[in-house]
Design brief:
Elements (H helix, E strand, L loop, with lengths): L1 H29 L3 E2 L11 E2 L3 H18 L5 H21 L3 H17 L14 H21 L6 H18 L5 H21 L9 H20 L3 H6 L2 H16 L12 H7 L4 H24 L4 H18 L11
Antiparallel strand pairs: 1-2
Helix pairs in contact: 1-2, 1-7, 2-3, 2-7, 2-8, 3-4, 3-8, 4-5, 5-8, 5-10, 6-7, 6-8, 6-12, 7-8, 10-13, 12-13
Length: 336
Protein backbone atom coordinates (compact mmCIF):
# COMPACT_ATOMS: atom_id res chain seq x y z
CA UNK A 1 0.00 0.00 0.00
CA UNK A 2 2.82 2.41 0.86
CA UNK A 3 4.61 2.08 -2.46
CA UNK A 4 1.33 2.23 -4.38
CA UNK A 5 0.54 5.56 -2.75
CA UNK A 6 4.06 6.85 -3.35
CA UNK A 7 3.87 5.81 -7.01
CA UNK A 8 0.62 7.72 -7.48
CA UNK A 9 2.14 10.83 -5.90
CA UNK A 10 5.27 10.43 -8.02
CA UNK A 11 3.17 10.21 -11.18
CA UNK A 12 1.56 13.51 -10.26
CA UNK A 13 5.01 15.01 -9.68
CA UNK A 14 6.10 13.93 -13.16
CA UNK A 15 3.15 15.77 -14.69
CA UNK A 16 3.66 18.93 -12.61
CA UNK A 17 7.41 19.03 -13.27
CA UNK A 18 7.10 18.38 -17.03
CA UNK A 19 4.17 20.69 -17.71
CA UNK A 20 5.53 23.39 -15.42
CA UNK A 21 8.91 23.28 -17.18
CA UNK A 22 7.22 23.55 -20.60
CA UNK A 23 5.24 26.60 -19.50
CA UNK A 24 8.29 28.20 -17.91
CA UNK A 25 10.34 27.67 -21.05
CA UNK A 26 7.96 29.95 -22.96
CA UNK A 27 7.39 32.45 -20.17
CA UNK A 28 11.06 32.94 -19.29
CA UNK A 29 12.05 33.38 -22.92
CA UNK A 30 9.24 35.87 -23.47
CA UNK A 31 10.36 37.88 -20.44
CA UNK A 32 14.03 37.61 -21.46
CA UNK A 33 15.08 35.80 -18.28
CA UNK A 34 17.99 34.13 -20.00
CA UNK A 35 21.41 32.75 -19.17
CA UNK A 36 23.71 34.53 -21.62
CA UNK A 37 26.95 32.72 -22.48
CA UNK A 38 30.25 34.17 -21.30
CA UNK A 39 33.87 33.00 -21.26
CA UNK A 40 33.18 30.69 -18.31
CA UNK A 41 30.02 29.14 -19.79
CA UNK A 42 29.78 25.73 -21.40
CA UNK A 43 26.85 26.79 -23.62
CA UNK A 44 26.90 29.12 -26.63
CA UNK A 45 23.25 30.19 -26.96
CA UNK A 46 21.19 32.35 -24.60
CA UNK A 47 18.91 29.91 -22.78
CA UNK A 48 15.99 30.40 -20.37
CA UNK A 49 16.99 29.93 -16.73
CA UNK A 50 14.59 29.11 -13.91
CA UNK A 51 13.14 25.64 -14.51
CA UNK A 52 13.79 24.99 -10.84
CA UNK A 53 10.53 26.85 -10.13
CA UNK A 54 8.69 23.88 -11.65
CA UNK A 55 11.06 21.09 -10.61
CA UNK A 56 11.42 22.16 -6.97
CA UNK A 57 7.75 23.14 -6.80
CA UNK A 58 6.73 19.67 -7.97
CA UNK A 59 9.19 17.96 -5.60
CA UNK A 60 8.06 19.96 -2.56
CA UNK A 61 4.39 19.38 -3.40
CA UNK A 62 5.04 15.65 -3.63
CA UNK A 63 6.91 15.59 -0.33
CA UNK A 64 4.12 17.58 1.30
CA UNK A 65 1.54 15.08 0.08
CA UNK A 66 3.59 12.13 1.31
CA UNK A 67 4.29 13.72 4.69
CA UNK A 68 0.57 14.47 5.08
CA UNK A 69 -0.32 10.81 4.54
CA UNK A 70 2.52 9.20 6.46
CA UNK A 71 4.62 10.30 9.37
CA UNK A 72 7.35 12.41 7.84
CA UNK A 73 9.26 13.16 11.02
CA UNK A 74 10.88 16.56 10.79
CA UNK A 75 10.12 16.94 7.10
CA UNK A 76 7.90 19.98 7.74
CA UNK A 77 10.90 22.09 8.68
CA UNK A 78 12.73 20.73 5.65
CA UNK A 79 9.84 21.74 3.39
CA UNK A 80 9.77 25.24 4.85
CA UNK A 81 13.54 25.68 4.62
CA UNK A 82 13.58 24.32 1.07
CA UNK A 83 10.83 26.71 0.02
CA UNK A 84 12.63 29.70 1.57
CA UNK A 85 15.89 28.67 -0.08
CA UNK A 86 14.18 28.36 -3.46
CA UNK A 87 12.57 31.81 -3.11
CA UNK A 88 15.88 33.45 -2.20
CA UNK A 89 17.73 31.61 -4.98
CA UNK A 90 15.16 32.81 -7.51
CA UNK A 91 15.86 36.36 -6.37
CA UNK A 92 19.56 35.60 -6.80
CA UNK A 93 18.88 34.38 -10.35
CA UNK A 94 17.13 37.66 -11.16
CA UNK A 95 19.43 40.13 -9.41
CA UNK A 96 22.75 38.39 -8.78
CA UNK A 97 23.17 38.67 -5.00
CA UNK A 98 26.54 38.53 -3.24
CA UNK A 99 28.28 35.53 -1.71
CA UNK A 100 27.63 36.80 1.84
CA UNK A 101 23.79 36.88 1.65
CA UNK A 102 23.76 33.56 -0.21
CA UNK A 103 25.82 31.78 2.45
CA UNK A 104 23.80 33.37 5.27
CA UNK A 105 20.48 32.14 3.86
CA UNK A 106 21.90 28.72 3.08
CA UNK A 107 23.30 28.44 6.60
CA UNK A 108 19.90 29.40 8.01
CA UNK A 109 18.22 26.67 5.96
CA UNK A 110 20.81 24.13 7.11
CA UNK A 111 20.34 25.21 10.74
CA UNK A 112 16.58 24.67 10.41
CA UNK A 113 17.26 21.26 8.89
CA UNK A 114 19.54 20.31 11.78
CA UNK A 115 16.87 21.38 14.25
CA UNK A 116 14.47 18.96 12.56
CA UNK A 117 16.69 15.99 13.44
CA UNK A 118 15.88 14.07 16.60
CA UNK A 119 18.63 13.93 19.28
CA UNK A 120 19.25 10.24 18.53
CA UNK A 121 19.79 10.92 14.80
CA UNK A 122 23.56 11.03 14.96
CA UNK A 123 25.21 11.28 11.56
CA UNK A 124 28.57 10.13 12.94
CA UNK A 125 26.96 7.15 14.72
CA UNK A 126 27.66 8.34 18.27
CA UNK A 127 31.43 8.62 17.84
CA UNK A 128 31.22 12.37 18.53
CA UNK A 129 29.35 14.46 21.12
CA UNK A 130 25.98 15.72 19.91
CA UNK A 131 27.13 19.35 19.53
CA UNK A 132 30.19 18.35 17.49
CA UNK A 133 28.12 15.92 15.43
CA UNK A 134 25.64 18.68 14.55
CA UNK A 135 28.37 21.24 13.80
CA UNK A 136 30.23 18.94 11.41
CA UNK A 137 26.96 17.78 9.84
CA UNK A 138 25.97 21.40 9.21
CA UNK A 139 29.30 22.17 7.53
CA UNK A 140 29.06 19.07 5.33
CA UNK A 141 25.46 19.91 4.42
CA UNK A 142 26.33 23.52 3.57
CA UNK A 143 29.16 22.31 1.36
CA UNK A 144 26.85 19.83 -0.37
CA UNK A 145 24.34 22.59 -1.14
CA UNK A 146 27.06 24.64 -2.81
CA UNK A 147 28.73 21.80 -4.68
CA UNK A 148 25.37 20.87 -6.20
CA UNK A 149 25.22 24.40 -7.53
CA UNK A 150 28.88 24.37 -8.69
CA UNK A 151 28.42 21.11 -10.57
CA UNK A 152 25.35 22.23 -12.51
CA UNK A 153 27.43 23.45 -15.43
CA UNK A 154 26.54 21.39 -18.52
CA UNK A 155 23.31 20.12 -20.03
CA UNK A 156 21.67 17.25 -18.18
CA UNK A 157 24.31 16.70 -15.51
CA UNK A 158 22.32 17.57 -12.38
CA UNK A 159 19.18 15.78 -13.57
CA UNK A 160 21.26 12.64 -14.16
CA UNK A 161 23.09 12.95 -10.82
CA UNK A 162 19.82 13.46 -8.95
CA UNK A 163 18.30 10.48 -10.76
CA UNK A 164 21.24 8.29 -9.73
CA UNK A 165 21.24 9.33 -6.07
CA UNK A 166 17.47 9.17 -5.74
CA UNK A 167 17.25 5.94 -7.73
CA UNK A 168 19.81 4.29 -5.46
CA UNK A 169 17.82 5.32 -2.40
CA UNK A 170 14.61 3.98 -3.95
CA UNK A 171 16.26 0.59 -4.41
CA UNK A 172 17.54 0.67 -0.84
CA UNK A 173 14.07 1.60 0.42
CA UNK A 174 11.94 -0.70 -1.75
CA UNK A 175 13.90 -3.75 -2.81
CA UNK A 176 16.12 -4.11 0.25
CA UNK A 177 13.72 -2.61 2.78
CA UNK A 178 16.07 0.03 4.18
CA UNK A 179 14.33 3.23 5.41
CA UNK A 180 11.20 2.95 3.20
CA UNK A 181 9.97 6.50 4.00
CA UNK A 182 13.26 7.89 2.71
CA UNK A 183 12.86 5.71 -0.36
CA UNK A 184 9.43 7.27 -0.87
CA UNK A 185 10.80 10.80 -0.70
CA UNK A 186 13.60 9.71 -3.05
CA UNK A 187 11.12 8.33 -5.62
CA UNK A 188 9.40 11.73 -5.71
CA UNK A 189 12.75 13.48 -6.23
CA UNK A 190 13.52 10.96 -8.97
CA UNK A 191 10.19 11.73 -10.66
CA UNK A 192 10.82 15.48 -10.64
CA UNK A 193 14.33 15.07 -12.10
CA UNK A 194 13.32 12.56 -14.80
CA UNK A 195 10.49 14.82 -15.98
CA UNK A 196 12.92 17.73 -16.29
CA UNK A 197 15.70 15.80 -18.06
CA UNK A 198 14.24 15.87 -21.63
CA UNK A 199 14.08 19.67 -21.45
CA UNK A 200 17.64 19.93 -20.17
CA UNK A 201 19.26 17.26 -22.37
CA UNK A 202 21.79 18.59 -24.85
CA UNK A 203 21.12 20.97 -26.46
CA UNK A 204 19.21 22.25 -23.44
CA UNK A 205 16.06 24.25 -23.98
CA UNK A 206 16.04 25.49 -20.38
CA UNK A 207 18.32 25.50 -17.32
CA UNK A 208 17.51 24.83 -13.68
CA UNK A 209 19.05 28.08 -12.43
CA UNK A 210 20.04 28.61 -8.80
CA UNK A 211 16.35 28.32 -7.91
CA UNK A 212 16.71 24.66 -8.87
CA UNK A 213 20.26 23.57 -8.10
CA UNK A 214 20.60 25.20 -4.65
CA UNK A 215 17.41 23.85 -3.01
CA UNK A 216 17.91 20.54 -4.81
CA UNK A 217 21.31 20.23 -3.15
CA UNK A 218 19.69 21.04 0.20
CA UNK A 219 16.92 18.47 -0.22
CA UNK A 220 19.13 15.69 -1.58
CA UNK A 221 21.63 16.46 1.18
CA UNK A 222 18.89 15.92 3.76
CA UNK A 223 18.00 12.54 2.25
CA UNK A 224 21.63 11.42 2.31
CA UNK A 225 22.17 12.63 5.88
CA UNK A 226 19.01 10.84 7.00
CA UNK A 227 20.31 7.69 5.30
CA UNK A 228 23.61 8.06 7.18
CA UNK A 229 21.78 8.61 10.46
CA UNK A 230 19.86 5.36 9.89
CA UNK A 231 23.20 3.53 9.96
CA UNK A 232 23.86 3.35 6.23
CA UNK A 233 26.67 5.91 6.22
CA UNK A 234 28.71 4.04 3.61
CA UNK A 235 25.83 4.13 1.11
CA UNK A 236 25.28 7.83 1.89
CA UNK A 237 28.91 8.54 0.94
CA UNK A 238 29.01 6.29 -2.11
CA UNK A 239 25.87 7.48 -3.92
CA UNK A 240 27.04 11.11 -4.43
CA UNK A 241 30.74 10.18 -4.72
CA UNK A 242 31.24 11.64 -8.19
CA UNK A 243 29.81 15.08 -7.32
CA UNK A 244 31.67 15.06 -4.01
CA UNK A 245 34.95 14.08 -5.66
CA UNK A 246 34.84 16.43 -8.64
CA UNK A 247 33.74 19.51 -6.69
CA UNK A 248 36.00 18.98 -3.68
CA UNK A 249 39.19 18.15 -5.58
CA UNK A 250 38.67 20.98 -8.06
CA UNK A 251 38.20 23.59 -5.35
CA UNK A 252 41.15 22.27 -3.36
CA UNK A 253 43.33 22.70 -6.45
CA UNK A 254 42.01 26.24 -6.94
CA UNK A 255 42.63 27.12 -3.29
CA UNK A 256 46.21 25.82 -3.48
CA UNK A 257 46.80 28.09 -6.48
CA UNK A 258 45.37 31.06 -4.56
CA UNK A 259 42.23 31.41 -6.68
CA UNK A 260 38.85 32.46 -5.25
CA UNK A 261 36.97 29.19 -4.79
CA UNK A 262 33.54 30.85 -4.95
CA UNK A 263 33.99 32.39 -8.39
CA UNK A 264 32.68 30.76 -11.55
CA UNK A 265 35.26 28.80 -13.53
CA UNK A 266 35.67 25.96 -16.02
CA UNK A 267 38.02 23.64 -14.15
CA UNK A 268 35.74 20.79 -13.07
CA UNK A 269 36.45 17.43 -14.71
CA UNK A 270 33.14 17.46 -16.58
CA UNK A 271 33.88 20.96 -17.94
CA UNK A 272 37.36 19.94 -19.09
CA UNK A 273 35.78 16.92 -20.76
CA UNK A 274 33.63 19.22 -22.89
CA UNK A 275 36.61 21.50 -23.58
CA UNK A 276 38.57 18.41 -24.67
CA UNK A 277 36.09 17.62 -27.41
CA UNK A 278 33.29 15.55 -25.94
CA UNK A 279 29.72 16.76 -26.30
CA UNK A 280 27.62 17.56 -23.24
CA UNK A 281 25.47 14.48 -23.73
CA UNK A 282 28.40 12.08 -24.15
CA UNK A 283 30.07 13.47 -21.03
CA UNK A 284 26.87 13.07 -19.04
CA UNK A 285 26.37 9.51 -20.32
CA UNK A 286 29.87 8.63 -19.05
CA UNK A 287 29.01 10.13 -15.67
CA UNK A 288 25.69 8.28 -15.66
CA UNK A 289 27.40 4.94 -16.31
CA UNK A 290 29.84 5.66 -13.50
CA UNK A 291 26.93 6.49 -11.23
CA UNK A 292 25.31 3.14 -12.01
CA UNK A 293 28.46 1.53 -10.66
CA UNK A 294 28.24 3.69 -7.53
CA UNK A 295 24.61 2.67 -7.01
CA UNK A 296 25.66 -0.99 -7.20
CA UNK A 297 28.42 -0.40 -4.65
CA UNK A 298 26.01 1.43 -2.33
CA UNK A 299 23.65 -1.55 -2.48
CA UNK A 300 26.58 -3.88 -1.77
CA UNK A 301 27.50 -1.85 1.31
CA UNK A 302 23.99 -2.45 2.67
CA UNK A 303 23.80 -6.14 1.75
CA UNK A 304 27.19 -6.81 3.39
CA UNK A 305 27.22 -4.26 6.25
CA UNK A 306 30.06 -5.98 8.08
CA UNK A 307 32.53 -4.94 5.41
CA UNK A 308 31.81 -1.39 4.17
CA UNK A 309 35.52 -0.76 3.59
CA UNK A 310 35.77 -2.67 0.30
CA UNK A 311 32.69 -0.90 -1.10
CA UNK A 312 34.04 2.51 -0.06
CA UNK A 313 37.42 1.66 -1.55
CA UNK A 314 35.84 0.50 -4.79
CA UNK A 315 33.77 3.69 -4.92
CA UNK A 316 36.94 5.77 -4.46
CA UNK A 317 38.69 3.87 -7.26
CA UNK A 318 35.67 4.19 -9.57
CA UNK A 319 35.33 7.91 -8.87
CA UNK A 320 39.05 8.45 -9.34
CA UNK A 321 38.97 6.60 -12.66
CA UNK A 322 36.01 8.73 -13.75
CA UNK A 323 37.79 11.96 -12.82
CA UNK A 324 40.92 10.82 -14.65
CA UNK A 325 39.09 9.70 -17.78
CA UNK A 326 36.69 12.62 -18.23
CA UNK A 327 39.23 15.40 -18.93
CA UNK A 328 41.15 13.42 -21.56
CA UNK A 329 40.64 14.99 -24.99
CA UNK A 330 38.93 12.86 -27.59
CA UNK A 331 40.31 12.41 -31.10
CA UNK A 332 37.94 12.56 -34.04
CA UNK A 333 38.30 8.84 -34.69
CA UNK A 334 37.68 7.84 -31.06
CA UNK A 335 34.71 10.15 -30.77
CA UNK A 336 32.85 7.98 -33.21
Amino acid sequence: MFWTTVSVVAAGVVVISAVGTALLCRTLRRRAILDHPNKRSSHSVATPRGAGLAVIGALLAGWLALASIYSGGGVWLILGAGTALAAFSWLDDLRGLGIGPRLAVQAGAVAAGLFSLSPDSLIFQGTLPLVVDRLLTGLVWLWFVNLYNFMDGIDGITAVETTAIAGGMVVLGAAIGTTPILGGFALIALAAAVAFLPWNWHPARIFLGDVGSVPLGFLMGWLLLALAASGQWAAALILPAYYLGDATLTLIRRAIRGKAVWRAHREHAYQRSVQGGRSHDRTVVIIGVGNLGLVGLAIASVLWPGAPGPALGAAAVLTGALLWYLPRPMTRSSDG
